[in-house]
Structures are given as C-alpha cells and as structure tokens.
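Q: My labmate handed me this sequence with no annotations at all. I'd like to see what the chain might look like in three dimensions before we decide whether it's worth expressing. Could you predict it?
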Amino acid sequence: MKNLTSLFLVLALFFGIAAQKAKAQAIVTAQVFAEVIEALTATETSQLNFGKFTPDVQGGQITVSPEGTRSKSGSVILSGAIANSGIFRVTGAPKATFTVQLPSTISLSHQNSEKTMLVSNWISTPQQGSGTGLLANNGEQYIYIGATLQVGSIIANPVGIYTGTYDLTFAYN
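A: Here is what I predict for the chain of 173 residues:
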C-alpha cells in the first residue's frame, strides 16, 4: 500500500506539472499592417540667383539667405538687380517628415571663357538634417535655399553670365 501511495503521488505530481506546462503556452493570431505612401517629389519654383554685381579690385563674397536677402563682403559692388533664394516645392505623404541634404561646393562657369566662381556655405529653411522637413496636411512644404558666392577680382571673374547646377536630396525619414 505504501508503494501504491508513492506511485500515486508521483503520477499526480507528473500530471500536475504537465498540466501547468500546457497552461503556460498560448497561441494568438495577430495582425500585420503595411502602408504604401506616395513618392516624395521636389520641383524648383525659383532659381537661386546672386543678382548683378561688379567684383572691383579684390572681389569678395555675395550671400543670399534662404529668405532671399542679399549681402556682400569685400570689394564687391552690388547693383540694384534682383537676387533670389532657390525655392523648391516638396510633395509626398501628408504629415510625413523628411531630410534635406545640401551640396558642399559647386562651380559656376563663365559662358564665354573657362573662368569660374565657387558657391559654398549652403543653408536651407527648414535646416538641413534628419526630420527637419514636415509635409503639411496637404502633403507639401516649400524649402528655401541660400548660399555664398566666392567672387574673384575683375581679372579672375570677367564680365558675363556664370551658370551651374547643384543637387539637393530630399528623403523620407
């Protein structure tokens, strides 16, 4: 009888542990979601333009802010011509954030010679970096671009038109 009681206790203990293991597991069916959003696009609505000026003897710098304000340093003489910041319309998924990546230094080339001027110190509103752009409820935002033009002397940068291109990168976060 003692052996039978011991066997009964061992079996009860075994089945009790097995029952607890079965209760420690659960199977759940869960849902998974994915959402495809529209592509991020950018369109230039206004070209960056440093306006008209004379380099004078030493040259200097001309800066156009993202707000379109033009300033100078050195012996550059500004004319009354209009200067503009670059403006871009960015569209995509409403309320999404995105990054703006600006160029480092680019070169403008004289249309009738091999003379150049450098453009650097790029700045944007909203600022460059991750998560700085936010598309509004209608899925758009305007980005304003400014930079600094390095102007040489009149010999280094003769009279004429200087042009160039630059790349901006807009990407969703």
